[in-house]
Amino acid sequence: MFKIGDRVKALPSITQQDGCDSQFLINKIGIIQFESQDDRGVNWYAVSFDFDDDRLHGCTGFTPHLDGWWCDGDYLSLVPES
Fold first, then answer.
1. What is the pLDDT of residues 2-61, one digit of tens each?
2. In angstroms, rounded to a whole number, what is the distance separating the alpha carbons of residues 73 and 31?
3. What are the φ and ψ backbone dihedral angles of 63, each rounded to 5 degrees?
4. Pairing between strand 29-37 and 7-10?
5. What's the pTM value of the predicted model, to 2 decimals?
6. Burial of 71 by CB count in 10 Å (0-12 exposed, 13-18 middle, 19+ buried)?
């Protein structure tokens, strides 16, 4: 769906992501740093964001500055290059 380096926006539906308080990510733009697929076939992306928040983290080392969040690809949209 997405590739490393893509700019993506967190959709309002990200609040439906399992067990996460992700309201603060709605409409924020980030960059895909890593892609993984779980045993159910769900694509997960380590997305690096450019704002500070204590809830952001390093995504198991895949976002370099503790500025990331694991996002289900269903809750992201591609931001077109301008």
1. 999 999 999 999 988 876 788 899 999 999 999 999 999 989 999 999 998 988 999 988
2. 13
3. -115, 125
4. antiparallel
5. 0.90
6. buried
